[in-house]
Amino acid sequence: MNLRIPQDATRSKVAVGFSIVIGKIFSILGYGLAGLGLLIMLVFITDGDYAELHIMFLVLVLPGILLIIQGARIKRRIRRFRVYVGLISNNFDSLDDIAARTNKTTAFVTGDIQKMINKRYFSNAALDFISKKVIMLGRPAPTKTHQNTESQDQYSAFEIRTCPGCGANRTKERGATVSCEYCGSSII
Fold this sequence. Notes:
Strand 5 and strand 6 form a beta hairpin. The protein contains 5 helices and 6 strands, in the order ααααββαββββ. The strands form 3 sheets. Strands 1-2 form a two-stranded antiparallel ribbon. It has a two-stranded antiparallel sheet with strand order 3-4. The chain has a two-stranded antiparallel sheet with strand order 5-6. It has helices at residues 7-47, 53-89, 95-102, 106-118, 149-155; strands at residues 125-128, 133-136, 158-162, 169-173, 178-179, 186-187. It folds into 2 domains: 7-136; 149-187, no CATH class. It is elongated and about 75 Å long. It starts with 6 loop residues before the first helix and ends with a strand. By secondary structure, it is mostly helical.
């Protein structure tokens, strides 16, 4: 069975993966520079040469610390993205609901999700500032629970699966393979 992943979902997966790699590179380089700078500073201190301490701090330690901080920011953004995907996939698409469930302000969540949309973490997403909701373009409307058995038989051909890539829930036909609308991973 050939599975075609939509172009936008592939871009989303690439954007998130790229950010994860960049975050790790920043952290590794940061710890390396800061560690090397501190080691060199320690050598200068033991030799009694205090003149180059400021230079070593400015050239190695300070940039290392800044890279560590930036790497940590990227890692936190990826963590928040995964939380947002989990909430949105469970039909918590109101920015106020997302803010309440993440213990952040609505303004922070709005800005954060907009940055993630701009960085292409979300594929086919937009913010509706009037209704204060995250709109997933091309997303099917949520199905309602039906009380009669005829409707239940009709919907028993569907199942809810969790995406192995990002944790989002997706309703799909039993036995079918679909791609995640958030990260593009295959859901079997």
